[in-house]
Amino acid sequence: MTSTQREYGAEQGRIAAVLPTQRPADDLRRESAAEATAESDDEFGFGRRVSKQDVIYFTSQLAIMAETGIPIATALAGIVEQEENPRMRKTLLEIKEAVESGEDFSAALARYPRLFDKTYVSLVRASEATGSMGPMLDRIAGYLRKEVETVGRVRAAMAYPTVMMILAAGVTAFLLTYILPKFIPLFQQRGSELPRVTRALIDLSQSLADWWYLYLGAMVAVVVAFLLVRRTEAARQHLDWLKLRLPVVGPVFRKVAISRSVRTLGTMIGSGVPMTDAIRLAGEVSGNYHFEQIWREVLDQVVGGKRICEVLTRSPLFPCVLVQMISSGEETGKLDFVLERVSNYYDQEVEMAIKTATSLIEPLMIAVMGIVVGGIGMALLLPIFSLSRPQ
Q1: DSSP string across 5-16
Q2: pTM of the model
């Protein structure tokens, strides 16, 4: 056996020790047909998409293997063999081939911005310059986990009012298109004058029954127009302004934007990324137009020689306490440590704000549904009460 073969065998042994235990061969054979079908579906765009959790799992695996001294190309080969998602497997295989051809790992990742964003690529590039690939990948995995947790909390908080609104609209449509028409013949037989509210609901019910396709087309057109218009900068500016000033959920959006931008800035600075790149990426990940503008102003002023805290002081979106902590971090040279502590604090604030918003939204949505359903019910009962009176 040659020395090259012995080295390859040793590498494979180290990979087997680091990666999770392989499944039995019988299980793999039973799944071969399903995997072949999945790969075929993927070619036509029907395969399982690559989620954020897939990227986190891949990053964690690669971090462990890099820390044990396994070369990136060899580690990627081991991960590719175990990857069950056809799209992710194909992407990792292409990245492995690029690395084996002599391309930097960060440059290979940059080819897939939907999976590995600018922050991910910048951190990997910084680790390539400092030789700390393993710890950096572990740090990236932790960063991504916190991002997923934050986004998950916000989506969970928004899910309840969304479901309640859809339910209220569905109940209203059911009452107007199915229940109310059954009362119309009764009202017409008596020939008595109906209350204004009842007449308005009857007209609306008949309109929905006769022109339902126009209403449906109008709803689809509004949704499509909104999705198209929101991509423009002017619409995004107004929508993000509205998000920050909503009475209940506005503070949640504000704290999420602060947490994401501050966490990214601290992670980038602590990883050796240049300050200008770190500030630019902090604005991009904030997810809000107005925070992006503030960080762009910070970037321009920092290039001109000013400190970050001096620029943030003029913005009403950043609390004074936060600006003071950033100022302290800049003075002591521990800005990355301060920003990390601040981001953890705001993560807790986001969780508390979401709980508060949810506790306020629940009774509000129940009251709205009660008013809508109760109003329709009263509109139906008022004529019945008048018909039951003795003439």
Answers
A1: HHHHHHHHHHHH
A2: 0.70
